[in-house]
């Protein structure tokens, strides 16, 4: 709720929580690991990985999102085509990016490619039918994206950042789970709500309900050996 007023507080907290999750599912501290943060915005997550001793690298295609003080060594790059060799990362991390790409399976393939066999892939996204699915025009997206966007403009006097089909896409939990289960290069370590403190995996097991109640899907994947 404080994202707009106090992004520093909000994103630092989120970054600590996300790295705790990586450590919990990865089986230990990230100290010494190579971490690739794809679509990492201004770098809160990369900075938190570094604070804990990881060699973390930020890849972000949008200069505006990188801001004026990106982490040292940040690379302007698209997640569909990362300038990295196969299997270099112990952990590949992407937070709230999948709903901003037109082709999630291809994006995930690239995350898998750069992760070493046995390495962890952290993918989280706000699905379309989540109460936050419409981002700055939520929850009015339930009445249609165009109407919600127009309402945002009327209320704030400015254009919304996101346009459905341009930089925001209707990504669904059921379809994404099927796409990931169909892959033979990853196993699913966990499919859970990113933010729910309880019943986080249970809610994702309920078709239909999960599209509304999960809020944000977190997939923890492990790359299979070749
Ligand atoms: C909502 S922001 C999330 C930023 C940060 N990861 C976080 O969780 O706060 C979405 C990010 O996805 C990035 N993005 C969009 N398309 C991308 C792509 N094809 N490859 C990599 N990043 C992309 C945007 O530039 C933006 O920084």
From TrEMBL:
GO terms for molecular function: methyltransferase activity. Pfam families: Methyltransf_11. Keywords: Methyltransferase, Transferase. InterPro entries: Methyltransf_11, SAM-dependent_MTases_sf. Gene3D superfamilies: Vaccinia Virus protein VP39. Residues 36-123 form the Methyltransferase type domain. GO terms for biological process: methylation. This is Class I SAM-dependent methyltransferase. It comes from Streptomyces akebiae. The lineage of its organism: Bacteria, Bacillati, Actinomycetota, Actinomycetes, Kitasatosporales.
């Amino acid at each position: 709720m404080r994202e707009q007023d106090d992004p520093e507080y909000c994103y630092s907290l989120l970054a600590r929580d996300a790295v705790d999750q990586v450590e919990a599912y990865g089986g230990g501290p990230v100290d010494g690991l190579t971490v690739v943060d794809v679509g990492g915005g201004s770098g809160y997550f990369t900075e938190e990985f570094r604070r804990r001793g990881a060699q973390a690298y930020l890849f972000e295609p949008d200069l505006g999102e990188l801001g004026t003080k990106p982490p040292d060594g940040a690379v302007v790059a698209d997640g569909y085509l990362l300038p990295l060799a196969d299997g270099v990362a112990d952990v590949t991390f992407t937070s709230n990016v999948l709903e901003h790409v037109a082709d999630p399976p291809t994006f995930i393939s690239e995350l898998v490619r750069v992760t070493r066999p046995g390495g962890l892939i952290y993918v989280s996204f706000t699905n379309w039918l989540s109460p936050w699915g419409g981002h700055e025009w939520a929850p009015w997206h339930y009445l249609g994206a165009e109407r919600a966007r127009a309402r945002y403009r009327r209320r704030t006097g400015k254009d919304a950042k996101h346009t459905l089909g341009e930089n925001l896409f209707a990504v669904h939990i059921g379809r994404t789970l099927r796409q990931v289960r169909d892959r033979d290069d990853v196993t699913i370590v966990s499919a859970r709500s990113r933010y729910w403190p309880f019943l986080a995996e249970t809610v994702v097991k309920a078709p239909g309900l999960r599209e509304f109640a999960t809020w944000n899907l977190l997939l923890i994947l492990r790359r299979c050996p070749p």
